[in-house]
Write a structure and sequence with these properties.
Layout lengths: L6 H17 L5 H14 L7 H17 L4 H15 L2 H16 L6 H14 L3
């Protein structure tokens, strides 16, 4: 059973997934579908339109990429937000989702693996 996420938590976890999707500079459709499925699985009608929500997450990603820091630092920033704003079970679910995103294209390149390890060490699901 998935852990209930409020809209802000869902936005943060979705941003982490989209960040990892974009990390290899290949916006893969299978990875995007994984992000859409995660949002749908946590969506409540009171959150509004999920398509608008995902556009806002992509805008958040663009804003994050506009900051003049390296990708590793961006991953650390998002990971710290996940750690600070999610409870243990939510953290575990977020990490599982991010793994599904980066594996959805059928390959895990060393760059994605390294970034995931950075994220995992900060988020600490337990």
């Amino acid at each position: 059973m998935s852990e209930l996420l409020n809209k802000n938590e869902l936005r943060l976890v979705s941003l982490a997934g989209v960040l990892m999707l974009a990390a290899d500079q290949d916006f893969d459709k299978k990875e995007w579908k994984e992000c859409e499925a995660f949002v749908q699985s946590h969506w409540l009608d009171s959150y509004g339109d999920p398509k608008v929500f995902l556009k806002e997450v992509v805008a958040d990603l663009r804003d994050l990429f506009s900051k003049g820091v390296e990708l590793d630092a961006k991953v650390r920033m998002v990971a710290q937000e996940l750690h600070d704003n999610l409870r243990g079970p939510q953290r575990g679910e977020a990490l599982e989702f991010i793994q599904r995103v980066i594996k959805a294209d059928g390959r895990l390149d060393p760059h994605e693996d390294r970034l995931y390890k950075i994220l995992y060490l900060i988020v600490e699901p337990h």
